[in-house]
Amino acid sequence: MGKELDRNRSQQPLRTPSAPGDGPVYRRLAAFAGVVLRATSREVWDDAAALPATGGMLLVSNHVSYADVLAVGRYVIWSGRWPRYLGKAELWSTPVVGWFARKCGQIPVLRNTAQARDALAPAQAALERGECVGIYPEGGRTRDPDLWPMTARTGVARLALSTGVPVIPTANWGTHLIMPGRRLTWPRLWPRKTIRVVMGDPVPLSDLYGRTDVEAMRIATDRIMDAVT
């Protein structure tokens, strides 16, 4: 993991020319999220030294709260990339949340159906366009009582091995104090919580590139989750 520091990121990412994955609504949402999170939490970030400046990449993380996307997404944006997250399709029919998901170019996933694999096509296209695609390998928020990651699904491994893009692991902690549990609820903003986000080195997967067999998928998935934890 990179050196940890507590810093206030500038507004520079919101003033730079359009980058892959961003847009006017996304920029306004990022600015608003920054105002809310700075006012209600203490953000402790590392230096995101492993984050590629350009090119397709997969961002993987643990998933302990609905607030993860805002906290980790903000960290990545202020480090120079605009993530497009894969998320459960039900959110796209939720008022406000669904509208923002569509306008910000996020990718819906029909979980537990044969159509879940269909989400990999737009995700792969985004990677090929040089975008940052965010994915939670567990496929949902953890059910572990101590909030350890659950067994991961193989979708992230399929994307990684078919595209050869770097897989960058991140871990966050503290968001579960803001939005605890598995139901979408109003956030608990006060007293202020500490949110920590750190990033690891790219997951070594080059020896598995191009393979599509079950064993390769499981090996790749295990390496990715080991890096996240």
General description of the model:
The protein is of the alpha/beta class. The protein has one domain (22-180, 194-228): Glycerol-3-phosphate (1)-acyltransferase (3-Layer(aba) Sandwich), CATH 3.40.1130.10. Helices cover 33% and strands 17% of the residues. It has eight helices and eight strands; from the N terminus they run βααββαβαβαβαβαβα. Strands 1-2-8-7-3-6-4-5 form an eight-stranded mixed sheet, sandwiched between helices. Helix 6 packs across helix 8. The longest helix has 17 residues, at 24-40. It is globular. Mean pLDDT is 81; it is low at 5-11.
In brief:
By secondary structure, the protein is α/β, with parallel strands linked by helices. The chain is built from eight helices and eight strands, in the order E-H-H-E-E-H-E-H-E-H-E-H-E-H-E-H.
**Tell me about the biggest sheet?**
8 strands, mixed
Q: Provide the CATH architecture.
A: 3-Layer(aba) Sandwich
Instruction: Report the top-level CATH class.
Output: Alpha Beta
- Please report the distance between the alpha carbons of the first and last residues: 11 Å
CATH topology, by name, is Glycerol-3-phosphate (1)-acyltransferase
Structural class from helices and strands? alpha/beta
Q: What is the arithmetic mean of pLDDT?
A: 81
Continuous helix count: 8
What is the string of helix and strand elements? Answer: EHHEEHEHEHEHEHEH
Rg value: 17 Å
Topology:
Blueprint: E1 4-5, H1 12-15, H2 24-40, E2 41-46, E3 57-61, H3 68-77, E4 83-88, H4 97-103, E5 107-109, H5 120-128, E6 132-135, H6 155-163, E7 167-173, H7 175-178, E8 193-199, H8 214-228
Parallel strand pairs: 2-8, 3-6, 3-7, 4-5, 4-6
Antiparallel strand pairs: 1-2, 7-8
Helix pairs in contact: 2-3, 5-6, 6-8
